[in-house]
Amino acid sequence: MTKFPYLKQDFLASIVVFLVAVPLCVGVAVASGVPAELGLITGIVGGLVTGLMRGSSLQVSGPAAGLTVLVFEAVSQFGVATLGVIVLLAGLLQLAMGFLGIGRWFRAISVSVVEGMLCGIGLVIIAGQIYAAAGLKAPESGLGKIAGLPGMFADTLGSTKALTSLAIGAGTIAVIVLWKKTPKAVQTVPGALAAVVLATVATLAFSLPVATVQVEGLLGVIQPPGAEAFGELANPAIWGTIIAFALIASAESLFSAAAVDRLHNGPRTEYNKEMIAQGAGNTLCGLLGALPMTAVIVRSSANVNAGAKTKASRVLHGVWLLLFAAAMPWALALIPIPALAGILVHAGWKLIPFGQIAALWRAHKGEALILVVTAVSIVAVNMFEGVLIGLALSVVKTAWEASHVKMEIIDKGAGPIQAYLSGNATFLRLPKILDSLESLPQDRPVELDLSGLHHLDHACRTALENWAARHSATGTEPVKVTEPEEAPAEKVTA
């Protein structure tokens, strides 16, 4: 026991994480348009491979609701057979980023963009899974899903089968929400698992006409990518998907790591090593033709709250998943699909940061706008482009704020007019600077003092030189310019 001082705590925590992981692994797979077993394979790899590696000791990896939208788009466009190639190359890209030390730079991504990404994903998941809960096919686009909801509900009211299916989905959500109000002893069973079990029992007991999970067997779904799948790499469109998988999975994992670090007092996350661990896991998932993995905050927080102390808990959870998938595949075939849809609707709702949006709007309206625009872009276009739009907006906002410049004009009525510039003079503020200078009287000499500037970019310098030449061309005394002070060599070196 001295070698494993926390074996009891880690063992109990692994059972809890396993029970949380099963419905999520299966639900994410079904929602992604792939066999249910592929979700379990990703969970197993997340436990047995990524779980053994260094990085973040207590966070748990597996298939994530946050990648559901992206995976579904990839499967629809390139097929299930090509998914392995995409995940494999995304994993290799993550490995490269980890070995190059890029992992820690993900912490520099604007929180508003990340929250906006999660919000957009949550909205698309909710809209799409409402159709799945009713047993109906969802439109392809995010906007189509949302716009079609009124018609979907109208169709559901006219169909007993669809209404029954939707009732199972709604009941699943109600159980998950109300489960938190049950006694603590009852809550040792995760709400999502309890909801699925109750939905399954109700479906069997009343012989309800709802779709259940299709089972092919663990070995039957493992499809290592073949030559034809690798041939898809000649298609330029697939590379955008690979990059999106790598970047979004990495961002989600590393932000999850930061969140998990706040939940416990154990060792802190080593970001580059965590990136390598995620890359190794995704590389293996790609070779097995499974879903991509990320660190998942739902499983990770369950792990910490259950009393886990070391990485043994997440490794053991992978063992339990493997035993379940190998010994009880028949149990999957009993699970109603609307129950899994209900779990994902609840997961999507949890991704929408209602509190953060309100707080940001009160304190930083610009950041709140970036969050909303990122979310809307993901719904309107797709996930990758939506995140890029959010990042671009974030960069523009930062550049605008960094280019704060102040101009002070002193005119004593006689002698030269004095113009003082301070702050950062960049092309973004050029119109404001030129408007102020061009409004000065043409027949008066001007002294332009730039010594208060911290930064003067090339565009601004050229524009000021041209203005000075024009002002002096009217026969007025040449504009006298005081250049910005250069920092001492020692400071520049430092």
From TrEMBL:
Keyword Transmembrane helix attached: yes
Domain of life: Bacteria
Residues covered by the SLC26A/SulP transporter domain: 7-374
InterPro entries to which the protein is assigned, alphabetical: SLC26A/SulP_dom, SLC26A/SulP_fam
Cellular compartments annotated: Membrane
Residue spans crossing the bilayer: 12-31, 78-102, 114-134, 162-179, 191-211, 237-260, 280-298, 318-347, 368-393
Keywords tagged on the record: Membrane, Transmembrane, Transmembrane helix
UniProt topology in membrane: Multi-pass membrane protein
Region (Disordered): 473-494
Predominant localisation class: membrane
PANTHER family: SULFATE TRANSPORTER
Protein name as annotated: SulP family inorganic anion transporter
